[in-house]
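Dear all,

This email documents one entry for the complex benchmark we are building for the journal club exercise. For each entry we list the sequence lines for every component of the assembly. Then comes the predicted three-dimensional structure of the complex as a token string, followed by one or two observations. Please use this as the template for your own entries, and keep the labels exactly as they appear.
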Amino acid sequence: MEKKRLYGTIEGGGTKFICAVADEQNNILREIRIPTTLPQQTLAACADFFLQAQRELGAFSALGIACFGPLDPRPISSTYGHILATPKPGWGNADVVGFLKTALGADLPIGFDTDVDAAVLAESRWGAGQGFSNLVYLTIGTGIGGGALVNGHLLHGYAHPEMGHMLLPRHSSDTSFAGICPFHGTCLEGLASGPAIEARWHQKAANLGQDHPAWQLEAYYLALGLMNICLILAPERIVLGGGVMNQSFLFPLIRSELTQVLGNYVRLPQIANMESYVVPSGLAGIAGLYGGLALARQAVQDQQ
Amino acid sequence: MEKKRLYGTIEGGGTKFICAVADEQNNILREIRIPTTLPQQTLAACADFFLQAQRELGAFSALGIACFGPLDPRPISSTYGHILATPKPGWGNADVVGFLKTALGADLPIGFDTDVDAAVLAESRWGAGQGFSNLVYLTIGTGIGGGALVNGHLLHGYAHPEMGHMLLPRHSSDTSFAGICPFHGTCLEGLASGPAIEARWHQKAANLGQDHPAWQLEAYYLALGLMNICLILAPERIVLGGGVMNQSFLFPLIRSELTQVLGNYVRLPQIANMESYVVPSGLAGIAGLYGGLALARQAVQDQQ
């Protein structure tokens, strides 16, 4: 009889780490939420949870960690598995993978990447990106971040991408807003993240009615961002997630703006049907944990 | 005795097709320039040249075609090997690979890609990108175009990239110039290609002195373009070529602007040393023919 495979997953965020154990069918068997305090404390609690779960359920085939960044996801690097420079106290240079390897055993395959890199992998396995080996996942929420698959593999160059910080032209009606990005002011995140909407219109994005001009402007900036992603990465599909995209009426607005700004320049059948080109996440609400599970599966494959 | 390998290469441009035959050491043994007229005529002349060369020198191991675009470089596609929609009379939908396969024999491995995709491959093999598996080549000349290697493979999604058409913010001193791109007006190509410089300053770029403000503005826009490429693709090195980059004093200006616009956001050692991060082509003047040769080598590898 084949032994049932189990996988550990961590959705590591700025306020909490969600840890879970799942089986081969992604059924969540155990789950815990651990406050994000200091790395030693938070990661020790994660390790305790997984050790106990392994005692009760059996050994894991792998662990996947979908974590806030910036981080180093490149196994060839000397700082692999570390969080990099982050304003979050105590977490700069934290060796997440090293800590968990020590606690859980060096033999356990571990996948480690950003939440958005994990999400694009999960969308391609189980969500809205199935069948696409050139895929982008963009989350629009507290920040804006993107991950990409190229030829079926996660895009890592000198690091993971930081698509949310690309620079864009301003809309002619929007010249005075200074943007909210502490690094670049009016990059995409500075213009179009949830907090940027709030800062521009002086109210919570969720409280703005569907007819509010905020949304047309939001769709415009997101379309410009998607246009640059198209021209640089040529993804076969783009999946949009994150809190802002819960306003599902944004999708037709974005598709229409994207068609317009591309200006008939890209005339390929692959992106002519915008309804199937720019799509909502197929894993809304579970992209984090599933992201970790996708990284765990990947870690097993990478070992084989 | 091992047989000497020979490769055919085509640099297919809008005004001429340069065909050549080279040995394993890239020594050019034969070369011809054929005017770009209509596909049937131009490609037949290319085929004649290669057939004669094969009779005199021996059979080729492969042929590589580095061609103007847009084109379809994806072997899985039904329009693989074709030029796509182009304003060039007669060339829209021209089946370049099909024609040459018929003329030269179906057994000959053929590599087919854009001039800039071919160039990034050649730079990684023999030029300024050796040792880098995540590399971008950007040419700034009559147009602006870019090719990328990701994980050592050419980046193709729904198509090849069209980086020259990304959208950028305007410099505060440059708000009236309408740009020259027929599709997008003020995309990167519309703002910073050679013809854009000429249109903005009413004289040939090559005639502008080193102290002319044109160059600081040019460096600024190119730096914004490189910034977006960094944030979306995270290349380990960027190689710049094309006629505009013959003004070598542009390199320090671009590096300085790029450091500034990144705003200390990307603080990784890989891109901290701008002198080794943004570099001139190592194959200036021969990137086209070497590009074709790199595609020919790739075609042999892909068969194995």
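Observations: Chain B has a mean pLDDT of 95. Chain B is about 35% helix and 20% strand.
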